């Protein structure tokens, strides 16, 4: 236990291209790229499916089918097939991140109070305007919930990047494993990397919860405060698609 | 890097594949079963006492947030197991299962209508008997839903164990990767997905059989 913390807090391991700051940055870069691409695909798609009610099967089917897919297998297969730097990693992380965002956006838009939608129609708004001005703002808590679930899954899975010779915090775990259990850079390094990944995930979770509170419109927040309080407390198995990571 | 497709590899290695599959099932399913058994009393406690709920539910949230590779790596640190002990994969899977199910079980038990429990008490059920024969069966649909997520995730998460040298089909993935053997890699992926989906379907079926009353109510889907 002590050797792991000694490794973790050794100043030598906190500088240079293979130190913790650089690895954390790599990890967050992979995560950011993947979540942004996934959001660019899944938010519009989920919004349209939720708005029109067409293609609902896609939401359920994707989330169920993809949960069984082993990320390690997908990533290694893509590396063997395409071998171009970051591309295989980004593709497999995007595939992982799409279902929760899609499900969040879909159920957010779908569950907007019908009275609000009717009122918008009554005021003369057309479909796209209703979606943009009424449904999406109201759906924001669930959309952000989906983004949060996706981000955490991607952070967890990005550790695997090290296995295919990329960076990120998984590097410490993989390198430690390769160094052998007995070596001073062996298990202590693995455990230090694992602690860093766990702390990063927990910090990110807290940060995204804060963002959710700041971004969501006060009107939506007050109106659904009770419901959201329940949802926040029961987070690990929300109605969104959340997988262990 | 180039990928090879040595198809003869497949028939020549059926024994190894079968062994890896068996190991994978043992690694993935045992923890889910243990997790289920542990989460029922914990979920019951959380449904009964506000304090227990206030501790267990946030704790489950935190444990659930910790990435699998991190948890797998940290088990030896916490429990003092060997680096390649199967427990290193099984303990995290059990933890995830418990984290997932505790809240489901507690919510499901809290959702049992009080008239039902009152009626059971009135006709003479003692608390334990009432819990096992009235409240728990009513919670089955929710528990099965959580269990399906847990088991399918466990099947795919077990593969991560291969990164720290713990077997199962994940080892065919790493081995296939190192040898550029596309057949081995794809065979492992397909087996994991197909077996996971079969178990998922079986659980759905078991859930339906165990709750015949959900089908008699019109328009209610389990």
Automatic annotation (TrEMBL), chain A:
InterPro entries: ABC_transp_perm/SBD, MetI-like, MetI-like_sf. PANTHER family: GLYCINE BETAINE/L-PROLINE TRANSPORT SYSTEM PERMEASE PROTEIN PROW (PTHR30177), POSSIBLE OSMOPROTECTANT (GLYCINE BETAINE_CARNITINE_CHOLINE_L-PROLINE) TRANSPORT INTEGRAL MEMBRANE PROTEIN ABC TRANSPORTER PROZ (PTHR30177:SF33). It is a multi-pass membrane protein. Keywords: Membrane, Transmembrane, Transmembrane helix, Transport. This is ABC transporter permease subunit. The keyword Transmembrane helix applies. It comes from Actinophytocola gossypii. The chain crosses the membrane at residues 28-52, 72-98, 154-174, 186-204. It is found in: Cell membrane; Membrane. Belongs to the binding-protein-dependent transport system permease family. Its main location: membrane. It holds the Pfam family BPD_transp_1. Residues 24-208 form the ABC transmembrane type-1 domain.
């Amino acid at each position: 236990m002590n050797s792991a913390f000694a490794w973790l807090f050794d100043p030598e391991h906190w500088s240079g291209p293979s130190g913790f700051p650089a690895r954390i940055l790599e990890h967050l870069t992979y995560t950011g790229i993947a979540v942004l691409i996934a959001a660019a695909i899944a938010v519009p798609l989920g919004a349209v499916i939720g708005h029109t009610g067409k293609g609902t099967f896609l939401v359920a089917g994707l989330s169920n089918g993809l949960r069984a897919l082993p990320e390690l297998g997908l990533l290694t297969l893509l590396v063997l097939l395409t071998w171009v730097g970051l591309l295989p990693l980004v593709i497999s992380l995007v595939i992982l991140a799409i279902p929760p965002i899609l499900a969040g956006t879909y159920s957010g838009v779908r569950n907007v109070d019908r009275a609000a939608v009717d009122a918008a129609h009554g005021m003369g708004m057309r479909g796209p305007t209703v979606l943009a001005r009424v449904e999406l703002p109201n759906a924001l808590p669930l959309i952000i919930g989906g983004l949060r679930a996706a981000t955490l899954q991607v952070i967890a899975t990005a550790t695997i990047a090290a296995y295919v010779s990329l960076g990120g915090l998984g590097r410490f775990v993989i390198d430690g494993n390769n160094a052998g259990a007995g070596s001073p850079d062996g298990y202590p390094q693995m455990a230090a990397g694992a602690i860093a990944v766990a702390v990063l995930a927990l910090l990110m979770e807290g940060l995204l919860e804060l963002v959710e509170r700041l971004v969501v419109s006060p009107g939506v927040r007050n109106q659904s405060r009770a419901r959201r309080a329940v949802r926040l407390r029961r987070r690990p198995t929300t109605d969104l698609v959340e997988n262990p990571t | 890097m180039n990928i090879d497709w040595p198809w003869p590899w497949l028939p020549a290695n059926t024994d190894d594949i079968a062994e890896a599959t068996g190991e994978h099932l043992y690694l993935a399913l045992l923890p889910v079963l243990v997790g289920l058994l542990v989460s029922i009393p914990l979920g019951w406690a959380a449904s009964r006492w506000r304090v227990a709920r206030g501790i267990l539910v946030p704790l489950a949230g935190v444990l659930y947030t910790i990435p699998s590779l991190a948890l797998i790596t940290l088990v030896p640190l916490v429990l003092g197991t060997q680096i390649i002990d199967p427990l290193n994969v099984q303990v995290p899977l059990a933890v995830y299962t418990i984290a997932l199910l505790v809240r489901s079980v507690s919510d499901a038990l809290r959702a049992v209508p009080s008239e039902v429990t009152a009626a059971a008490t009135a006709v003479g059920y003692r608390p334990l008997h009432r819990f096992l024969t009235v409240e728990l069966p009513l919670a089955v649909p929710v528990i099965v839903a959580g269990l399906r997520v847990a088991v399918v995730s466990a099947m795919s998460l077990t593969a991560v164990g291969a990164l720290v040298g713990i077997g199962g089909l994940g080892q065919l993935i790493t081995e296939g990767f190192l040898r550029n053997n596309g057949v081995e890699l794809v065979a492992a992926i397909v087996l994991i997905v197909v077996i996971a989906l079969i178990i998922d379907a079986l659980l759905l079926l078991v859930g339906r059989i165990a709750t015949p009353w959900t089908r008699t109510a019109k328009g209610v889907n389990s």
